Amino acid sequence: MTGSRLAPGDLAPEFTLPTDDGKTLALKELRGRKVVLYAYPAAMTPGCTKQACDFRDSLASLQAAGYEVVGISPDQPAKLAKFRERDAITFPLVSDADKAALTAYGAYGEKQLYGKTVTGVIRSTFVIDADGLIERALYNVKATGHVAKLRRDLGLD
After folding, report:
1. In this predicted structure, what is the pLDDT of residue 3?
2. Three-class SS of residue 106?
3. Taken in order 134, 135, 140, 143, is the CA torsion positive or negative?
4. What CA–CA distance (Å, rounded) separates 70 from 19?
5. DSSP secondary-structure letter at 104?
6. pLDDT confidence of residue 135
7. How far apart are alpha carbons 85 and 104 in whole angstroms?
8. CB-based contacts of 41: which residues, under 8 Å, 6+ apart?
9. Whether 48 is catalytic
10. DSSP code at position 107
């Protein structure tokens, strides 16, 4: 069930998914802008909250550099709305309940969790260029410190 991993130069898989605010977001709507799409396992858990708040706190500088940020998880839109409200998340959160987009990005499948092999969301970040091509595909990223490292890698710090 694991999707194959993406590499720089690959076409980013298209998706149209429901958002935390009751609308839908299609990747193609963001064409012409650079996108940081990050996959996380579950809203309102400690690691995912830390990561979302780090993206929120870096959003102005990422947007100033031309990047849009989108979070993707299998959570239902209602849970994503609670997450957005609780933690003042200021970028779109999309719901991939059937995990089709996560699988297409190689961000759903077998992973290690506390020494056991489980199937779930693989915490990942994708930098997509203005033409819809993968610029960076980062898998098994850490929740803490990842945004700071990404900012350095993108030359923003």
Report:
1. 61
2. coil
3. negative
4. 10
5. H
6. 97
7. 29
8. 47, 48, 73, 120, 121, 123
9. yes
10. -
Q: Which residue positions in the chain have pLDDT lower than 70?
A: 1-3
- State the residue for tokens 């923003």: 156
Nearby residues of 13 by Cβ (< 8 Å), 6 or more positions away: 6, 27, 101, 104, 105
Catalytic position from the list 12, 30, 39, 48:
48
Are 36 and 70 a contacting pair, CB within 8 Å? yes
Residue with tokens 């980013």: 12
Q: How far is CA 8 from CA 11, 47, 126, in A?
A: 9, 27, 10
The two tokens of residue 2 are 């694991």
Could you give the CA distance from residue 131 to residue 119 in angstroms, rounded to a whole number? Answer: 32
Beta carbons of 133 and 106 less than 8 angstroms apart: no
- Cα dihedral 3, 8, 9, 11, rounded to 10, equals 30
Global pTM value: 0.94
